[in-house]
Specification:
single chain, four-stranded antiparallel sheet, mainly beta
């Protein structure tokens, strides 16, 4: 058993009853940020020093040839024949298929939406889930391409996710702001069938992206209802304070479009939330001037 922490790397050979510090040849006060590995090797992410590997149960370590040596490695996951690590440099993701011996960049476009990835986790052999400051990312091709999917979360990327845990059929998420959430794993690892809508509960209940986005004036919000009933759509600012009521009343099943005048709103990120029966869906919109 191993624990990576700011003060060093601890190792236990008796199921955690006793611990000793493992020697890693690192210069300076860098913290040991993350740890992963297979049956015959260990991978250690270090703040500002890249990735180290041990082939002898943590007794000796060597610095690997990561694409950008010296990167701050936030997270590593390993299994099923490949390894993935997240670095701080332009939110680079690294991938290795030879037990960490060599690394290559697998995605350098995430910095347009994401500024940090703090956790990586394997699901069902070839799927990968990631926690970022913008929300939950998932990959269905061993980390080659990624999709941001916050369906069912109350405020998209502003919920401050602190941890993620997967079971055989669920994903559990804890938020520093909004509590804990759960979602069927099948919804995240099933390829999308068409339009990128926020969907939950019955398949016909959807909340579409506001048009236009970003906006400086009138906004159209498309949505559809699986069944008739009382529906509300409220708008929240980045502090999760309600600033407007868009819809509040009885509506029939089917497709609808709500209109919002955003001309008086200060510029910034906003979140609109649909509540219909037991279903709650949230999307983000941006106001510019």
């Amino acid at each position: 058993m191993f624990i990576a922490c700011d003060s060093g790397l601890a190792r236990s050979s008796d199921n955690g009853a006793a611990w000793t510090l493992a020697h890693v040849p690192i210069q300076g006060p860098q913290g040991y940020n993350c740890l992963a590995g297979g049956s015959s090797y260990l991978l250690l992410g270090v703040q500002g020093d890249g990735i180290y590997r041990s082939l002898d149960s943590g007794i000796t370590w060597s610095l690997l040839n990561v694409h950008r040596g010296g990167d701050y490695i936030y997270s590593i996951c390993d299994g099923f024949g490949f390894s993935i690590a997240s670095g701080a440099t332009n939110v680079i993701l690294y991938r290795s298929s030879d037990q960490g011996g060599t690394w290559s960049v697998i995605d350098s476009s995430l910095h347009h939406r994401v500024s940090i990835i703090t956790q990586l986790d394997f699901v069902a052999k070839r799927y990968v889930l990631a926690v970022s400051d913008a929300g939950i990312l998932h990959s269905m091709d061993k980390g080659v391409s990624w999709t941001l999917d916050n369906n069912g979360l109350p405020a998209d990327g502003s919920i401050a996710i602190s941890d993620m845990w997967t079971t055989s059929n669920e994903v559990l998420i804890s938020s520093q702001i909004s509590g804990c959430f759960r979602r069927p794993l099948s919804e995240l690892i099933t390829p999308p069938s068409g339009v990128e809508d926020a969907t939950a509960g019955a398949a016909a209940t959807r909340l579409g992206q506001s048009i236009p986005n970003p906006t400086s004036g009138d906004v159209l919000i498309p949505y559809s209802l699986a069944q008739g009933g009382h529906v509300s759509i409220a708008l929240y600012n980045s502090l999760l304070q309600q600033v407007a009521t868009v819809v509040d009343g009885e509506q029939p099943a089917g497709s609808h479009t709500a209109r919002l005048d955003a001309s008086a709103l200060p510029p910034g990120a906003y979140y609109y939330r649909l509540h219909a029966g037991t279903i709650n869906l949230t999307r983000q919109m941006v106001v510019v001037r």
